[in-house]
Amino acid sequence: MDNRTHVREVSRVLAVAAHPDDLDFLAGGTIAGWTRAGLDVAICIVTNGDAGQLGQTPRNQVAALRQAEARAAARELGVGDVTFLGYSDSRVEVTLALRRDIARQIRRVRPDLVLTWAPERTRDFIRSNHPDHRAVGEATLCAIYPDAANRYIHPELHDDEGWHAWRASQAWLMGAAEPTAYVDITDTVDVKVAALRAHRSQTGHLDDLAERIRETAAKAALGAGLPAGRLAEVFQITPTA
């Protein structure tokens, strides 16, 4: 697997996730590398993570807390543009409304590359198969094409809001059963860990978080054919234009 030829003509990225900490776990090192290289990265999070289990935190405070954590994590990665769509955690479905909302973000950001979840179910780790993950992946792919690329789909985006049609050239999928590309994150893994630490409600109890992240990234790197000692994140790349 090799991603090195795929980002030469990329200057803007939109990352679309289901939950506040998705991107940091699956692509934090990659996003940190992109911002270090000067790429403009925007993040769109579909839910507020309001179904998260936060111990004694009152339920009506969970969404605000997780949003604040996600913004802090994004700052660690070098991202200042973070949008929450406000859908309920664990109740996401592939609807026209969700497709429109993601298409709006694509037209607003005008990314060359869209990063999101793979929509297919895998068998290796059940938590990767959260229904929100798969629904967001499918809705985002629909939003990339045809929704964002055709002004006559969701015409209110163009006619009422002024968001012109836009076609991203690449889709990068997280959690794919058969990844086709890797990113070497050896130099940004500490930034990834710092971003994950910002999600205190989710990772504060994990004293061995850094070790877990490095172990997972080392396995990914070996699977990608990188030398021992390197760390990686893996994706499936789909041309869209």
TrEMBL record:
<dbReference type="InterPro" id="IPR003737">
    <property type="entry name" value="GlcNAc_PI_deacetylase-related"/>
</dbReference>
<dbReference type="GO" id="GO:0016811">
    <property type="term" value="F:hydrolase activity, acting on carbon-nitrogen (but not peptide) bonds, in linear amides"/>
</dbReference>
<keyword id="KW-0862">Zinc</keyword>
<dbReference type="InterPro" id="IPR024078">
    <property type="entry name" value="LmbE-like_dom_sf"/>
</dbReference>
<dbReference type="Pfam" id="PF02585">
    <property type="entry name" value="PIG-L"/>
</dbReference>
<dbReference type="GO" id="GO:0016137">
    <property type="term" value="P:glycoside metabolic process"/>
</dbReference>
<protein>
    <submittedName>
        <fullName>N-acetylglucosaminyl deacetylase, LmbE family</fullName>
    </submittedName>
</protein>
